[in-house]
Amino acid sequence: MTEYHKTEKVQLHAPDLEELRGVLQAGLKNNFAEVQVSVVDCPDLTQDPYQFPAKGLCGSPRITDIGGVQNLLSSVKINKEYDMNVISKQLELPGAFILGATRGPGNILGFNAEVITLILTELEGKPAVNSSHYTCIGPDGKCQQGKYSDKTSDCKIGPLGNLYACEGKPGKVVEVRAKKRTGNHSLVTALRKTLRESYPDKSLALGGTFLIQKGKAKVHLMPREVAPCPVKTPDKANDYLRIFEVNAPLICPTVLVSKDPDIDLRVEHTHCFSRHGEGGHYHIDTTPDTVEYLGYFMPAEFVYRIDEPTETHAINNKSIIKD
Ligand code: ZN
């Protein structure tokens, strides 16, 4: 299989989990009334409510940023696809468990979708297991969710993705419990800002998954029709994206980066799904007084930038056109 071009690999600062625990415990208190951060054994993620294709988040943790928002603006590039079985090799981790937020491949699905990618990639003849979910606007205009594997047997994503990859092993992870939001930041932004402020000169990244156990969340979905995004500027994005309020419990794989080491990274991206048919691209909870988060995270050792678009730099983080 042919590799995708323009891979850059940058080492990240991956602190010891106990140190990270202390940093997050102190920082998240600026955004939540109740915070409990611990170092624990990763729960078995093959079990409910997760049903992921691998048990844990451990072993050679790394992240990747593939493609980008710029690809959504072009009628050719909007149909770019990336096969996770190829990507796992480019991440120097064949057989990796890959999880995160991606845009669905429009040509394959036939509609725009925010995909929750959960793939155990192929290894030495053992076929891949694709447990991904897609969320989209249904023909009735409502939020709809389905299993990616019901649509196709491949392991592809569309023109952009923010993913965490590891060996999928059990092991120690950082557990975050946060209740009652007192600040203006989402859980992901609060984690990111805490790391940025605690390690101002270093680039850190976390990957993992969290639950919104109680409350509701604001998500977006894109229009169903696969067509280049007509919106070129952030202030017009709300005319294009459709905002929904969805109910807990929600399962939210995520990737976040504290500081871009100048390779045009998107600094956070989270998609969520549920067992009741709701999901999408997570913005923030809408029920600060009652919200309860429970998350499991690992610091990544490397970031791999794959197929970085050549157009305008840093649009990812300035724009709110975030699929
Ligand atoms: Zn998204």
Describe this structure in words.
Helix 1 packs across helix 4. The chain has 323 residues and is mainly beta. The chain has one domain (7-309). Helix content is 13%, strand content 37%. It has helices spanning 17-28, 84-90, 106-109, 187-198, 237-240, 315-318, and strands at residues 8-11, 32-41, 62-67, 82-83, 97-103, 114-120, 129-130, 133-137, 143-147, 156-157, 160-166, 172-181, 205-214, 216-221, 242-247, 250-257, 268-272, 280-285, 292-299, 302-306. Strands 1, 3, 5, 6, 7, 8, 9, 11 and 20 form a nine-stranded mixed sheet that branches. Strands 2-12-19-13-16-17-18-14-15 form a nine-stranded antiparallel sheet. A two-stranded antiparallel sheet has the order 4-10. The longest helix has 12 residues, at 17-28. Mean pLDDT is 93; it is low at 313-323. A hairpin with an 8-residue loop joins strand 6 (114-120) and strand 7. It starts with 7 loop residues before the first strand and ends in a 5-residue tail after the last helix. Zinc ion (ZN) binds at residues 101, 114, 269, 271, 281, 322-323.
Structure ligands: zinc ion
Distance between the first and last residues' Cα: 27 Å
Give me the strand/helix succession: EHEEEHEHEEEEEEEHEEHEEEEEEH
Mean pLDDT: 93
Q: What would you say about this model in short?
A:
The protein is mainly β and 323 residues long. The protein is built from six helices and 20 strands. Zinc ion (ZN) binds at residues 101, 114, 269, 271, 281, 322-323.
Secondary structure layout plus pairing:
Blueprint: E1 8-11, H1 17-28, E2 32-41, E3 62-67, E4 82-83, H2 84-90, E5 97-103, H3 106-109, E6 114-120, E7 129-130, E8 133-137, E9 143-147, E10 156-157, E11 160-166, E12 172-181, H4 187-198, E13 205-214, E14 216-221, H5 237-240, E15 242-247, E16 250-257, E17 268-272, E18 280-285, E19 292-299, E20 302-306, H6 315-318
Parallel strand pairs: 3-20
Antiparallel strand pairs: 1-20, 2-12, 3-11, 4-10, 5-6, 5-11, 6-7, 6-8, 8-9, 12-19, 13-16, 13-19, 14-15, 14-18, 16-17, 17-18
Helix pairs in contact: 1-4
Zinc ion is lined by residues 101, 114, 269, 271, 281, 322-323.
